[in-house]
Structure formats: structure tokens, C-alpha cells
Amino acid sequence: MSTPVIKIENLVKRYSDLVAIDHFNLEIKDGEIFGLLGPNGSGKTTTINCILSLLSFDKGTIEVFGKKMHPDSYDLKRQIGIVMQNVAVFDTLTVYENIDYFCGLYIKDKNLRKQYVEEAIAFVELDQFRKFYPKKLSGGLLRRLNIACGIAHKPKLIILDEPTVAVDPQSRNKILEGIVELNRQGATIIYTSHYMEEVEQICTRIAIMDSGKNIACGTADELKQMIKKSEKITIEISSISDEHMKNLLSLPHVYDVDYSNGQLNVSCSGGRHNLIHVLEYLQQQDLSFGRVYSELPTLNDVFLEVTGKELRD
Amino acid sequence: MQVFKAFIKTAFKSFPSIMLYFIIFTSLALLMAYAYTDTTSSSFKSVELQIGIVDKDHSAASAALSEYLDSMHELISLENQKEVLLDRLFYRDVEYILVIPEGFEDNLLSGKDTNLFETVQIPGIYSSAFVDQQINSYLKTVKLYLSGGYSLEDALSHSTDTFLDTANNVQIVNFNEDTQHSASLVGIFSFYQFIPYVLASMILCGLTPILTTFWQKDLAKRISCSSTSLISRNLQLALGSVTYAFFNWGLFILTSRIFYGAEVFSEKGLLCILNSLMLLPLSVALSLIISSFSPSWNATNMINNILSLGMSFICGVFIPQSQLGENVLAVAKFLPFYWYIKNNDLISGSSDELFTYTAYWQNIGVQLLFIGALFAIALVASKMRLARQEA
Ligand SMILES: Nc1ncnc2c1ncn2[C@@H]1O[C@H](COP(=O)(O)OP(=O)(O)O)[C@@H](O)[C@H]1O
Ligand SMILES: [Mg+2]
User: Phi and psi for A54 in degrees, rounded to 5?
Assistant: First the structure.
């Protein structure tokens, strides 16, 4: 088995009294798009900063490409691209000059750098803005510049910390497509976000973080299978008696039924034909109903079940 | 050299506003330098005075003294009548009246020290003190010859000879050295007196925002993730700062060369230039300290101005140190500009102190101590910044 790109064992990081990272474990393999999903303040950025050795930590070990990371591990840093949560570019340099600056921190060869910078500009589609100063760019374009600065030197590992915060939907889709493309070209990706849809859309594997702990890890499907709920059926209905609800609950695989605001919610665990069974029952009882939805569980459901709170606040 | 390149690029983006500084303040400095040159040259002319003389002794000694004064000033013999004398003085027919009393020669021979002669002067005129000095040193020399065993006749003639030969040198020792400098040297002195304010302003205004940018938390973090080593990055920043400082300094040297000619590179000129070199590390260190506190753009400008203007006022850049109050000077001694100006005054001869290389190097030394101290503070400040940013 090849060495993992990142291996974190028992990481603990305290900010005086606050335990920001609490015995955190993680292993990321080559070629993954790994999602670090967690609400604000769950410790995603702190974890990234520890990986990059920007922060010292209290306990545990971190290995990058099989080697311990230190502030002066410049050979390791050479292979890492980083897109920080806060946009970090020079206001006094243009789009082109900024990308060239950051690329030049890694690539000394002038011609190669020029080629890389051009490729990065094309990649984030900022060609027509190359002479713009950052102050003149919209939020989405600025994020794209930030990404270009992080990936221009063609790193093997790319870490993106909430790259889509405060970005319009169009730019957001461009960014997500770009990340998938970078991965296709061979880079391992670490992607942090508190948007479960994004993570679910692009990540091959996901760790759910809460209060500095890794509470669940796996592919989106694996995570959803970990929980009891496998299907959520919602039916618009004007009224329903307690008797009917009891009967519904006794149907196979149904483990929870509740009714509120004209909506009947039926939670099922396993089984393939739950919706049909529920609708059959309603028809037999001559109960008229409106629209019907059947949803597979979301990562939010996973988060809710594991932590008892909503992912989105 | 990526950091250095970005540094220089950033520096030159703020170049137009820095040039504005340069042009405005350099023209001001040049203007003031010209004004300064004018007053000194007029005081040079006023050295030749109209002196009224009342000789009551009619001796060989009094005649010799009169002859000596006559060689430098315009002498007018006057009657010994109080009203007449005061009248002449009042109407400025004469600017100084010397009364040689009866028994002057005898007193001289007997070695009497005080009240050898009397004078009537217009109060508050600097040049009359100068004549007092001339008379005193002449008489001192005569007494020196007499005590050396010379006859009165010989003592008088020798003294007159030495003074007439070396009249200029006597002036150098006894009077303001300025009077000996060419007009361009006087301009150079005054130009270099104004430099601290402009040079410090330009370096502070140019450098502080750049350093603040490079040390801004998010950028600093992002940059430290890169594979360019910390040492290399810091060296490039240092190189950038030095280049920028020298560039500004060069502008001033060039300007002084253009306006004052080759004399800028005469001995005295070079002493001024070397002295002004001290301003570079000084301003860079100040800039390092300020930027460690990551001030906003507005705060940066305010701090820069307060520092450069404030220090300049207290330390005698705008107002000569000789005209500053004792209290102000006592405070100024704790500021580096004070020692810069003190040294400049020393070179130009406008201080009380005679120029010696020892005194010059001492003033340079004090400035170097300040520079050392400021860099130490800068180091502590940047440690504090790092600690703050880590938290
Ligand atoms: N410099 C700091 N000092 C003290 N507490 C901090 C600091 N940075 C982050 N924290 C705390 O650590 C926790 C994790 O923060 P962070 O890693 O930024 O979360 P996320 O990136 O997931 O939003 C939060 O509770 C946050 O308030
Ligand atoms: Mg974060």
C-alpha cells in the first residue's frame, strides 16, 4: 500500500482553555478529493494550519507524504498548494503579478514559471482581468485569483479552505468544476466546507468534524448507511388521526411518524418499497393527500443523528 | 528574488506620491538654503565697521592699536565730547566707539589686565563683540611679547605684523567660521540641515506600507507556506529596504550635486554626506518598528508625519539649535536627529564647538548607538508581531 498523503494521529490543539482539535485522526490517500465537512468553528482551519505547520500543537503527529512536517520542511512545502480561507493577495500587484509572485516562491525557472502562470490564468478564466488590481475584482473573481495563486506551481497536494464562501453560484460552479479537473490531472485535494451539497457533489471521501473531533468518515454513501434513516417520506395531508399514524408506524421498516403543519413525515430504515407501502395504506383508508416527496438522507441527517444538532445553523 | 522583485514593484507603485514629497520639500529646502546663504554673506560684509576712536593717550601703543584697527575697519577720529559721541552713534555714523584713556601705554607696560580701554557700542549688535575680541587678542599678543622681554616698540611692531599677516586666520579662530566658506558650501550645509525631515519622510512613507503589507497576517501566513525559506525571504526584504533607502539618499546627493556643484564632494561636503548616511538605517529601523504594529494606511501616514515632523522641530532641523530653548534641547538629546544636526553644525562651524574629527566621529558614534538601539527595538517588535499573529 502506498504511503498516505496525509496522516494525522491523535492531534490535540488548545487555544488556552478551548480545545479546538480533540484527538483528531485522519488519513488521506493519493488521488482523493477529501472533504472536511463541519460547521463554523468546528476546527477545520485549525487542522489545516497544523498540517501546514503554521501552528504548533499540543499532542499527536502529522505526516505529509510520509514525512514529519516542520516550519522549515521546504521540500514538502514545494509539493503543497494552499488556498487560504482568507484571500491573501497583494493589493499593489495586478492579477498577473500576484500569480507570478506566488508561483515564483516555488518555481525559480523563469520560462517554466511564465508557462505555469499562463496556465493558471487560463484555468481560473481570468485572462481578461490579468492587468486588474485585486481591489477591482468582484468577490468571485477574487476567490479565483486566490485559487490561481495557490495552484499555479502544480502541487501534488492542494488544500482549499472554504474556497467558495461568499461566492456567486456561477463562480462557485466554476470553482467546483476546476477542483475536479485538478484532481483529474493528478492532484490530491483536501477541501473544507460547511456546505454539505458541495462536499457531497465533488468529494470522494468525507470526514465530518464537530468540536474538533472526527465524528464520521467515509464516502457519502457509507456515511448515509451508517445512520438508521435511509429514506424520508413527506406527504401533504390536511388531517390525520392518531390511529392512522399508529398503523403507519407498524408498517415494515418505518421507525418514526410525525405530523406537523399539514405535513406527514415518515422515516424509514432500510427496505426498498417504503413509499409504495405508505401510499397503498393511505389509499386503502380513503385518505386524500397532496404532494408526495421521497428523499434519501442527506449529510445533514447524518450530522443531525450523530451530534443531535443541525449542520446548518 | 521573487520577494525582492515584488518589494521593488510595490515601492515604485507609491513612487509618484513619494516624488511629490521630494519635489515639494526639496524646493523648500533649496529655497531656505538660499535665504540662509544671503544672511551669512551680509554678515560677512558687516564685519568691516565704522569705528570712532578717541585717543587720549597719544602714545606709541595707542597709535599702534589704531593702525591695527585701521587695517580692517574704517577709522574715524573723534573729539572727546560725550554728546558728540552719542550723536554719531545715534545716527549710525559710527557703529562702535573706542576710547583709549590716558595712561593706556603705562597700564599695558605694567601688565594691567582690566579696563585698558573703554568702548561705546550700539546695544545688541553682534559685530561690536567681534571688535572687542579683535582688540583684546591684539593687546594679549602685545603683552605676550612684552613678558617675553621685548621692548615696547618691538612688541608693538611684531604684534601688528603677525596680525596683519594672519588677520584672516585670527578671524577664523575668533569669529564665525561661516564667513570663510564659499557660498556653495554654505548652501550645502543648509541643504543637509533640512534633509533629515524629507529623507525620513520619504523612507517612512515608502517603506512602512510595504512592510506592513508583507507582514499582514493572512499574507504572511500564506507566504510562509511556500518553499522559499524564511531566511531567503527576510534577506530579500532587507535588500529591498536597503535598495529603496539608498535610492532616496542618492536622489538627495544628486540634487545637492546639481545645485551646489563639485564642492559637494569637497572634504566638508563629504563629511555632510557621510553624516546624512546615518539617516538611512535610522529611518529603516523606525519603519520596521512602525510596521510591526500593522497600522492602517491612515495611521501609518499619521505616525510617519508625527515622527519625522516632530523630531525635526525639536532637534533643530527647521529652527537652528542655537535658537532652541534649553528644555527642548535637553529632550532632543534623546533623539537621533539632534546628533545629526549637531554634527552638521559642527562641520559648518555654526556651533560653539570648534571642528575636530574627534567631535565629528563622536556624533556619528552616538547616531550609530541610536541605530543599534532602534534595530534592537525593531527585533523585539517583530517578535511581538509574530507572537500576536500566531495566537
Ligand atoms: N487564534 C485563535 N485563538 C483562540 N481561539 C481560536 C483561534 N482560532 C480559532 N479559534 C477557535 O478554535 C475553534 C476552531 O476554529 P476554526 O479552526 O477556525 O474553525 P473552522 O475553520 O472549522 O470554522 C473555534 O472555536 C475558534 O473560535
Ligand atoms: Mg475555517
Answer: -85, -25
Instruction: Look up the CATH number of the domain holding residue B113.
Output: 3.40.1710
Alpha carbons B267 and B188: distance in angstroms, whole number: 12
CA A30 to chain centre: 17
C-alpha cell at A87: 484571500
Question: What residues are paired with A256 via a beta bridge?
Answer: A267
B298 and B349 within one domain:
yes
pLDDT tens figures, A177-192: 999 999 999 999 999 9
Among A13, A16, A45, which residue has the most ligand 1 atoms within 8 Å of its CB, making it the best to mutate?
A45
What is the domain range of residue B34?
2-40+181-390
Write down the ipTM of this complex.
0.85
Q: How far apart are CA A202 and CA A242, in angstroms?
A: 43
For the segment A235-251, what is each residue's pLDDT rounded down to a tens digit?
999 888 889 989 988 88
Which residues, other chains included, contact B384 with Cβ-Cβ below 8 Å and sequence gap of 6+? B292
Burial of B82 (0-12, 13-18, 19+ CB in 10 A): exposed
The average pLDDT across B199-205 equals: 90
Domain spans of chain A, in order of start:
6-224, 231-296
Q: Is residue B203 part of a domain?
A: yes
Specify the residue with its C-alpha closest to ligand 1, atom 16.
A43
Across the A:B interface, residue pairs with CB atoms under 8 Å apart total 67
Residues B371 and B256 in one domain: yes
Distance (Å, whole) CA A174 – CA A124: 8
